[in-house]
Amino acid sequence: MDQRSPVHATHLTTRSQSVIESxxxxxxxxxxxxxxxxxxxxxxxxxxxxxxxxxxxLQALASEGLLDYAPNxxxxxxxxxxxxxxxxxxxxxxxxxxxxxxAAERGLTEADRVVLEKSLQDxxxxxxxxxxxxxxxxxxxxxxxSFHETIHAAAGSRILGQMIQLCLQVPISSPRNVVAFExxxxxxxxxxxxxxFEAIVGREPWRAEMLMRDHVGSVKASLIRSLSSxxxxxxxxxx
Length: 239
Known about the structure:
By secondary structure, the protein is mainly alpha-helical. The protein has helices at about 5-30, 40-45, 50-65, 80-105, 110-125, 135-155, 160-165, 185-200, 205-235; strands at about 35-40, 65-70, 75.
């Protein structure tokens, strides 16, 4: 029988989640090269934790699709052809635009409106008066996921939701995995969120759709710039 107290169990869960978020952030920010093998021991030293939460984090990121796993080789950073990433974003822009239009046509429930307003307020607070740091990536990721997933649900279409999930099987295209995390880009995206929300609440379907499509397109552009920069950095370091 497990004799651990609820407080101890909560501490372990929080620490494990913190390790997952730290490793996810490092992968998404390009600290590891595509195809690079991740070894448990150096990661335990880097994160100052035991091997157990590191192993759990590697397994979690592999299940998300950010890492590949092979027997006798372990975990490596997954490589995504740029054309595959671009394609996922282009399809996602159309689908999410449709979700925003349907949400505006149907109108938001009070519960959905509260969630969206909270995500906007949380974003305002995060961006208030200071530049973002890498430590803010998990917080912004949670805000971003809340905003987009609430609109997906508010569209009220099961088929559309399933199609969006197919797009997100390329995990770099997921709202959770914020690759391009430059302060200027994030502020623009959050401003987009405000405008999209206003269009949905104002029952302006076509405006909501165009704003969302433009929003996802701008994320794609900043992602391409970020990935290209990361590739150049890794190539330079190998010379």
